[in-house]
Amino acid sequence: MDLYDALADKAVGGEPLTREEALAVLATPEDDLLDMIAAGFRVRRHFFGRRVKLNFLVNLKSGLCPEDCSYCSQRLGSKAEVLKYTWLKPEEATSTAGVGIAAGASRVCLVASGRGPTDRDVDRVSTTISEIKKSHPDVEVCACLGLLSDGQADRLCQAGADAYNHNLNTSDATYASICSTHTYDDRVDTVERVKHAGLSPCSGLIAGMGESDDDLVDVVFALRELAPDSIPVNFLIPFKGTPLAREWNLTPQRCLRILAMVRFVCPGAELRIGGGREIHLRGMQSLALHLANSIFLGDYLTSEGQAGQDDLQMIRDAGFTVEGADPEQAPDTHHDLVKVRKRGAGTTEVANA
Ligand code: SF4
């Protein structure tokens, strides 16, 4: 039996991976990549079958953040030309959420920039949550509003929120090098408050910020300890105008190794491919679905993603099904595929290379 099959057996059998085993997954040689994915797929299938959960982001408040997280386009001093606006009205947020739900999302993620919400902000978001729940009782609502203070998680829970997202992002040892305005412990504290209030905890990481394999294993082992129900793995989007704009150090293979490591270490958690999926995994996105069981549909907070229609087509082409969707109702995937040539020989337009 090879290493990856042994790791899959351990993961399915509930035996925790050791640190050395997690590091070995990150060091998988190119020639063994498909064996690693096949073993990871066995674990994914055991817990989630061939289902893909679709999550839809609604950016309630964009930019103008007083915090200095170096990976973020909305940070203090960011020169990134992203949309900047203050709180959407609850009716605007509810109607935007409806677009994602109509396209197949079974979870709506309500996100706002900032260090954390005021009690007035929690009231505002609570109204939006109740409105969404009134019209879509089966859809999960997750809030992501930053660091929470006393009683705020309980109030979101009472308003009908199902989950709260707050990512650890990177290891405790490197946290101070990516942010100076709050600490790793502040983030852990919010995840603990979320759990205590009875909300489903969602917490993940960002890869590609120059971290070592040890840092990645540290943060994933810390997540295993916190036991979130869902783990978003984001791949850094190096926005121009942010301190990490030049950090283009991920390859599709590296992204697959990271996803596989998270799948083996936290086998029963919903593993979501977060931001950066299209620009870092590129043609390997559908291979990554064999490890992850969840993605964001369409656009991210401040950057555009693949068209939602193309996400749905990718899922279907790879042999997966959208969680909660009726397969009979799957959209026509042959939209606009045939394009009549209008450039190159015989025309005045130059052909694309
Ligand atoms: S607190 Fe959130 S919005 Fe503000 S800079 Fe950090 S990640 Fe960005």
UniProtKB/TrEMBL annotation:
Gene3D superfamilies from the UniProt entry: Aldolase class I
Keywords: 2Fe-2S, 4Fe-4S, Biotin biosynthesis, Iron, Iron-sulfur, Metal-binding, S-adenosyl-L-methionine, Transferase
Residues the record lists as binding [4Fe-4S] cluster: 65, 69, 72
Binding-site positions, [2Fe-2S] cluster: 109, 142, 202, 272
Source domain of life: Bacteria
Gene Ontology biological process terms from the UniProt entry: biotin biosynthetic process
Textual note on the cofactor: Binds 1 [2Fe-2S] cluster. The cluster is coordinated with 3 cysteines and 1 arginine.
Keyword DNA damage recorded: no
Radical SAM core domain boundaries: 50-277
Catalytic reactions of this protein: (4R,5S)-dethiobiotin + (sulfur carrier)-SH + 2 reduced [2Fe-2S]-[ferredoxin] + 2 S-adenosyl-L-methionine = (sulfur carrier)-H + biotin + 2 5'-deoxyadenosine + 2 L-methionine + 2 oxidized [2Fe-2S]-[ferredoxin]
EC number: 2.8.1.6
PROSITE patterns with a match to the protein in the record: RADICAL_SAM (PS51918)
Keyword set includes Transferase: yes
UniProt GO MF annotations: 2 iron, 2 sulfur cluster binding; 4 iron, 4 sulfur cluster binding; biotin synthase activity; iron ion binding
Entry-linked InterPro entries: Aldolase_TIM (IPR013785), BATS_dom (IPR010722), Biotin_synth/BioAB (IPR002684), Biotin_synthase (IPR024177), Elp3/MiaA/NifB-like_rSAM (IPR006638), rSAM (IPR007197), rSAM_sf (IPR058240)
Pathway assigned to this chain's UniProt record: Cofactor biosynthesis; biotin biosynthesis; biotin from 7,8-diaminononanoate: step 2/2
Cofactor(s) in the UniProt record: [2Fe-2S] cluster; [4Fe-4S] cluster
Function noted in UniProt: Catalyzes the conversion of dethiobiotin (DTB) to biotin by the insertion of a sulfur atom into dethiobiotin via a radical-based mechanism.
HAMAP family: BioB
Self-association state and partner proteins as the record states: Homodimer.
Family per record: Belongs to the radical SAM superfamily. Biotin synthase family.
Protein's name in the database: Biotin synthase
Organism: Sinosporangium siamense
